[in-house]
Amino acid sequence: MKHYQTQAALMKALAHPVRLAILDVLRRREACVCHLEATLGQRQAYISQQLMQLREAGLIDSRKDGRMVYYWISDGRVYGLLDVLCGPAPVGGSYRADGCPCPYCAASIDAETIPVFSNKENSHAQR
Amino acid sequence: MKHYQTQAALMKALAHPVRLAILDVLRRREACVCHLEATLGQRQAYISQQLMQLREAGLIDSRKDGRMVYYWISDGRVYGLLDVLCGPAPVGGSYRADGCPCPYCAASIDAETIPVFSNKENSHAQR
DNA sequence: TCCATCCATTCAATAAGCTGAATATATTGT
DNA sequence: ACAATATATTCAGCTTATTGAATGGATGGA
Q: Which of A58, B23, B55, B57 could be a cystine partner for B13, CB 3.0 to 4.6 Å?
């Protein structure tokens, strides 16, 4: 019999509405905590708690830029799973969040045309 | 903000190694409890407990035939999720289990060439 | 340096999930 | 009717997850 332990751990990390909501945001582009806070309407500490769990599960990674910390999906399986769960991710659009001070939202930058901030390969080609 | 409650419930049902193992068996064809018991090497009562949870989550359905109860996957999303989690399901093969008294295993019937027992549409086209 | 902002961490109370054990139900054959 | 077989259910003890609250740490601007 195979091991389903690792797969179950992946499912467990996704088995939470707020964590799913976070990943559904992150599959469009990387985002800072304040952006998730504004988008999801949840307290900052709570968002951070869920981000920690996602990080411990190896689903996301982060980088620090000034005061902001940007998170993105680092496990390619998440994209496929979200496609089944939520349908395909919308492409394009401004994707702004009111009250979020991050450069993405301040400039209302389109998700596709970002030369400065897009440095991680989000091309769904990871494993 | 969308509801991720139903999707999270689906993930929660999958967030268990034995339940994943059960579904990985069922995605090949329907199976009785004794077949799962023999295949997974788990106690019967334990298998039944997990089957109950999968049924309550709406992922599987069952039919009774004599003393046996056959289970199959009734939520089409499960196939897509298992494809991402475990890779594509193997096709063909005898798929017998030692010690299982069900007709499938007694006759060592191939998963594809079953005229008598295959009555449910397992064509992944639901939902 | 001081303050405001953005994020992370710890703690505690409650809720939920896990699983072994025991037992119940239903069906078939003798 | 009785026994054997296949499956379902309930219960209890234990572990784990959830979430609000409070607080800590780091960064940048004045």
A: B57
CATH numbers and ranges of domains, chain A: 5-90 (1.10.10.10)
Q: How far apart are CA A92 and CA B92, in angstroms?
A: 42
| Strand D at less than 7 A from CB of B84 | no
Q: Which residues of chain B have a CB within 8 Å of the CB of A3?
A: 17
Contact call for residues B35 and B68 (beta carbons, < 8 A): no
Task: Return the residue matching tokens 């990674």.
Answer: A61
**Which residue from B2, B11, B80 is facing A15, i.e. has the nearest CB?**
B11
- Provide φ and ψ at A118, rounded to 5°: -85, 105
- Which has the closest alpha carbon to A95: A41, A29, A40? A29
**pLDDT, tens digit (0-9, with 9 covering 90-100), for B16-61:** 999 999 999 999 999 999 999 999 999 999 999 999 999 999 999 9
| Residues whose CB falls within 8 Å of the CB of residue A107, separated by 6 or more in sequence, listed in order | none
Distance A122 CA to D18 C1' (A): 31
